[in-house]
Amino acid sequence: MSPLVKIRSERDRMSAVERRIADFVLDNAQLLRDYSSQQLANALGISQSSVVKFTQKLGFKGYPDLKYSVGEAIARADNGDDVEAAAQVRGEAAESPATGLWRRKSEAEEATRLINPPQALAAVTRALAKTGRSGKLFLIGLGEDDVHARGFAYKLALLGLPVVHNFDLARMTASVSAAGADDVLLVFSEFGNQPALCKIGRHFRESRGMLVSVTRHSANPLRALADAALLVSAHDERPYIQSLLYQSALQHLLDILFVQLCEGDDARHAQLVANLERIQQVLES
């Protein structure tokens, strides 16, 4: 994995000091070879030990190891062997807004892919599929998070899964009171710190159902409570861009789950095709 991708994917979990170091490395990758750990610390107004701890937390032996890895990524970029690193090294100065947005979305999707290992996605897919045989599937999100919860609920319903979607806290609280051990609750919350959703999650777990959180790749109460976590890594200093990156990366993550469900069972795929045909007939009538 490129060290630049690794740093970007872990940024949401970093402390304020660590994020400052990460942003400096990402913004000045080409210049890093000219900085010692002490010079980098001086440039940021932090201690040298903070720089060393930052590199070790990312899995490097020390600052020289990080600097060497970044240098290798730059060399691969110069040789055309690493498209992602090349884009990072070139920066955004010469890009049009449209090109820059496409690149940043691709980076966010790549970072999100790396922090959701295949085995974790497979476990969530199996749990969702199981509800089609012996359980129910609950989904909830508040505000903008409900856009993704609603869209994913629709796709799951097309596959014939028993979906219960709600954005009303009172109704969802009443719905999960009848949940069982084979049920699954997906809670969409970008920052994972909404107390009401955490309370619903706790009530659901009391019924021994499986709680799946959908949040940023950060330490948050909802993620800590969940049995399984779907994580999104998306960062940009511009708030209006960061929101777009999060939505794009999350949609890509949900699309992966949907494809796995479609391709994992012929009966579900047949149900999808049949439902799409029925919907088209209704729309044309």
Automatic annotation (TrEMBL):
Pfam families for this protein: HTH_6, SIS
Residues of the HTH rpiR-type domain: 1-77
Full protein name: MurR/RpiR family transcriptional regulator
Species per Swiss-Prot/TrEMBL record: Rhodanobacter geophilus
